[in-house]
């Protein structure tokens, strides 16, 4: 179980806001282990990772967006 700090370390100054960056991924990777690691990380960020959004100053993705994104992640080879 992860323990979150009382104040997120990603926002060192008061009143700052988080900036979301989109993931740009290839559909195919030459190394199977790299593809598997990326799929695992992105799937985590779209599911379990969403529970950390509020604490880090972000807004969680709508379920529809997460669902569509997970479908795209499943197509990575």
Question: Concise description?
Answer:
With 77 residues, this protein is mainly alpha-helical. It has a domain at 32-74. It has two helices and no strands.
Structure description:
The protein is mainly alpha-helical and 77 residues long. It has a domain at 32-74. It is 35% helix and 0% strand. It has two helices and no strands. Helix 1 runs antiparallel to helix 2. The longest helix has 15 residues, at 32-46. The protein is elongated.
The helix count comes to 2
Report the oligomer: single chain
Beta-strand fraction estimate: under 5%
Number of DSSP strand runs: 0
The helix fraction, in percent, is 25-40%
The poorly predicted ranges are: 1-5
* Category from helices, strands and their pairing: mainly alpha
How confident is the prediction overall: mean pLDDT? 82
N-to-C SSE string, H for helix and E for strand = HH
Radius of gyration over C-alpha positions, nearest whole angstrom: 15 Å
Tell me the distance between the termini: 30 Å
Tell me, what's the shape?
elongated
Biggest sheet details: none
């Amino acid at each position: 179980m992860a323990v979150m700090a009382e104040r997120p370390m990603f926002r060192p100054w008061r009143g700052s806001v988080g900036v979301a960056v989109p993931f740009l991924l290839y559909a195919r990777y030459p190394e199977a282990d790299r593809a598997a690691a990326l799929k695992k990380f992105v799937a985590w960020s779209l599911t379990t990772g969403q529970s950390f959004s509020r604490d880090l100053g972000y807004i969680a993705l709508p379920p529809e967006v997460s669902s569509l994104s997970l479908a795209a992640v499943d197509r990575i080879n």
